[in-house]
Amino acid sequence: MQLEDFLLTLPKQWFNDELVNAYVELLRVRQMKFASSVRPKPRYIFFNSFFFDKLTENGRFNHDAVRRWTRKEVVLKARKIFVPVNVTDAHWFLAVVIPAAGRVELHDSFGGAQEHMGKNLARWAEKEASLHGLPKKDWSVVTMPCRIQENNDHCGVFMCRHMELMSKGEAVVGWGGSSSYHRRRIAAELLSGSL
């Protein structure tokens, strides 16, 4: 992450892919440390923001474009799979694939996640299951209640905080603090390299 990316944690700035992906890496590292110290191990997968872009490149579903991301492991054995989604470089929301339930949850701080994007992830999960000989499921896409952002430039903040809270098993609806506080917190976590 470059300084210009880090400066996007300042007020009234939109988070970009590099900033979000740096935060996703912190979550992934924390998960690895946590999983090695706790039994039974909750297993979460954190994809970076490019996963969904590749899966739906040029507006078309393309499982082959992301096949290498999951070639070495059966990701559908995870408890949750976190997928940050950037809609036309103008809005972030979080998609969470819950394999055991056969469900894709959409967490959108504007309250209007686009269901067709969730359906693409459900289709991806079906293909993954088929490739690994897992049972077939009727996947559902659900828009989940979550805290609504106060303005047009905090969706990245909300998406990162949702990932962080959900990966700790905490509620995502009633978390407190101003968006400015959470921006500063994300900046501090990125600077320190830990959550």
Low-confidence stretches: none
The N- to C-terminal Cα distance equals: 17 Å
Large-scale geometry: globular
Query: What can be said about the biggest beta sheet?
Result: 5 strands, mixed
Rg, Cα atoms, Å: 16 Å
Number of domains: 1
CATH class: Alpha Beta
How many beta-strand segments? 5
Question: How much strand content do the residues show?
Answer: 5-15%
Number of separate helices: 6
Order of helices and strands: HHEHEEEHEHH
Look at the structure and name the CATH superfamily.
Adenoviral Proteinase, Chain A
Keywords: Hydrolase, Protease, Thiol protease
Organism: Porphyra umbilicalis
Family: Belongs to the peptidase C48 family.
Domain Ubiquitin-like protease family profile: 1-166
Structural features, described:
- The chain is of the alpha/beta class and 195 residues long.
- The protein has a single domain, classed as Adenoviral Proteinase, Chain (3-Layer(aba) Sandwich), CATH 3.40.395.
- The protein contains 6 helices and 5 strands; from the N terminus they run H-H-E-H-E-E-E-H-E-H-H.
- The chain has helices at residues 3-6, 17-37, 50-55, 115-131, 155-167, 179-192; strands at 44-46, 80-87, 91-98, 103-107, 140-144.
- The chain has a 5-stranded mixed β-sheet with strand order 1-2-3-4-5, sandwiched between helices.
- Helix 2 (17-37) packs parallel to helix 5 and helix 5 (155-167) packs across helix 6 (179-192).
- The radius of gyration is 16 Å and the shape is globular.
- The chain starts with a helix and ends with a helix.
Relevant terms:
about 200 residues; alpha/beta; Adenoviral Proteinase, Chain; five-stranded mixed sheet; deSUMOylase activity; hydrolase; Papain-like_cys_pep_sf; Peptidase_C48_C
